[in-house]
Design a protein that fits this description.
Layout lengths: L10 E2 L8 H7 L8 E8 L18 H12 L3 E5 H7 L8 H9 L7 E5 L11 H4 L5 E5 L4 H10 L1 E5 L4 H10 L4 E4 L3 H9 L5 E6 L21 E9 L2 E8 L3
Parallel strand pairs: 1-9, 2-7, 2-8, 3-4, 3-7, 4-5, 5-6
Antiparallel strand pairs: 8-10, 9-10
Helix pairs in contact: 1-2
The chain binds NADP nicotinamide-adenine-dinucleotide phosphate (NAP).
Length: 250
């Protein structure tokens, strides 16, 4: 991929000589017009994805949030598993004035579309996310979903019913809707399946300077073998490390 916009680090996200929000935007480029799937996750020093409250916010930091927001700014879709939505109660995804003209010039919708994957369709329909986001959220499910829950989902979301909700079918459906710039914000189950299908092009990983007790991490069955990425840059702030890894060959 292009080296344009690449920064070398560690570089500061906090303090007087910190990177600006636009520096951060350039540090997380979306290469080309085609598919690019980036995984955005925070982990603790002992590998936990959540804190004692079972939420990722308690192991995050203001510096981590800067990266989280920077990566979203030019994304077409924010892809999450149902477990993450049930736990994290996403707020509405709204267009931001600072991004309007850049997104319009690039032919993008005014704001990213939240896309949720769920077999059960047991989702928190009471959230303002569904009706107060700039773009209507998408829900992916399977043809064998419960009829009553399918009807409920149709009332709240742009429902995409797939024969099989394989990672490839999900990503292909997003591309078909002209949403090829995809940031997968978790959780660990969905991320594992995307990696296993070789669909993660980039992993933007924050390492928080805390231990949480690994027993608190969501449990996922292992991949058949480890999948290697290479380090593109490292940033730091609030004693937190934020790393950008690229998949082999990207
Ligand atoms: N540290 C971080 O950066 C981070 C990021 C995100 C989440 N989290 C935390 O991780 C926890 C959730 O983890 P998780 O791994 O259980 O959640 P997840 O991957 O977000 O969700 C798993 C659920 O997503 C649905 N799903 C995933 N792939 C599917 C597929 N191919 N077809 C159909 N449905 C599919 C299923 O939902 P149904 O059960 O509805 O069928 C499944 O039970 C939460 O505590 C959250 O706070 C941490």
């Amino acid at each position: 991929m292009s080296e344009a916009g690449r920064v070398h680090g560690p570089l500061p996200l906090t303090g007087a000589d910190r990177l600006t929000e636009d520096d951060l935007l350039r540090a997380y480029p979306w290469p080309g017009p085609g598919r690019w799937v980036r995984a955005m996750m925070v982990t603790t020093l002992d590998g936990a994805a959540v804190g004692p409250d079972r939420l990722s916010g308690s192991v995050s930091s203001p510096a981590d949030q800067l990266i989280f927001n920077a990566v979203r700014r030019d994304a077409d879709a924010v892809l999450i598993g149902a477990g993450t939505l049930r736990a994290e109660h996403y707020t509405p995804m709204r267009a931001k004035p600072a991004d309007a003209s850049r997104r319009e010039t690039a032919g993008q919708l005014p704001a990213p579309v939240v896309a949720v994957v769920s077999g059960s369709l047991d989702l928190p329909w009471e959230l303002p996310l569904w009706h107060e986001s700039t773009c209507q959220p998408v829900v992916f499910t399977r043809t064998d979903a419960d009829a009553g829950r399918l009807a409920m989902a149709r009332e709240h979301a742009d429902l995409i019913v797939l024969e099989q909700t394989t990672p490839k079918a999900i990503i292909d459906a997003l591309i078909k809707r002209k949403l090829p710039r995809i940031v997968c914000e978790g959780g660990p189950h969905l991320l594992r399946d995307l990696v296993a299908a070789d669909l993660v092009d980039e992993a933007d990983i924050t390492v928080s300077p805390v231990f949480a007790g690994t027993a608190l991490s969501p449990d996922t069955s292992a991949l058949p073998q480890v999948t290697e990425f290479r380090l593109a840059h490292a940033l730091y702030g609030d004693d937190t490390m934020m790393m950008r890894y690229l998949a082999q060959g990207r």
